[in-house]
Amino acid sequence: MALSQWIDGDESASEMLARVLKERTSLVVPPLHRVPLRVGNVVELVGPSGSAKTQILIQAAVNCILPKEWNGIRYGGLECSVVFIDLDCRLDITRLYQVLKLRILEAISNGSSSTGDQENFDALHATCLRRFFYIRCYDSFEFLATLKTMHHKLQKERDGLGVGLHLLVIDSIGAYHWVDRVSSSLPLWGHNRKPLPSPFLPSRIKRMMLCEQSLSESESRHGKTDGGQVLYREYMPSAWQSFVTHRVFVRDSDEHPTGSSCDRQPTYFSEWLLPSLGFLDKFIVKNAGIFLVP
Hints:
CATH superfamily: P-loop containing nucleotide triphosphate hydrolases
Number of helices: 9
Oligomer: single chain
Order of helices and strands: HHEHEEEHHEHEHHEEEHEEEE
């Protein structure tokens, strides 16, 4: 929009919101749908092991790489690139393929009954996967080297694909925290190399956040206090805590939805800590992704 058009223009509040939301797409996958997430936001998922944190990251990644529309069928994605940095080296990539495949097949079955669906699926599946970049790092220095050299690679991929990076996923940001802390206390660490200063990782990631969002997973071994029971306690350094703009706490539950035994799925709870919303979302994980439970 030109400056003169903006000055002379006259639009209602609803028209302005529709325009802004269209221009600034956001992640709307459960349980991240409660708060509008924008470029530059850093969202931390915290919770004990086995609380579906990685499943949420996979769902967010699939939502980004899917197109808004393809051959007349609406898929509801953001049509953007995703970088998934796996610091735990435990991501089941076949799980991402499964969620992506089922999302595509569901949209095709709802939006088209014509022939050539298989060709449509194959072409779209390959296009989506070209927007997904998977990187494994095995220590902090490898992670830093990845962040330092990523800008040039992403610029090259942006020129080739015609779309920019929208989401940076780190699973999990605390993977090397305790190893680095112990190593830094030793008299000879890494052949006399100095340990990483705590603000260095956030500052390096912050440079990348000028054009995209970030999702990170942090596994809490202590937890958030609830009725005297400690469920979550922060252990990351203050440099990281001040860097995070949003925080969501997720945990497993003993509850199961009603139904036949084969349909029963583990139930999970999510709670926004930053900003504090004061209520819980309940969700389950199915083959096609995450679904909210009333």
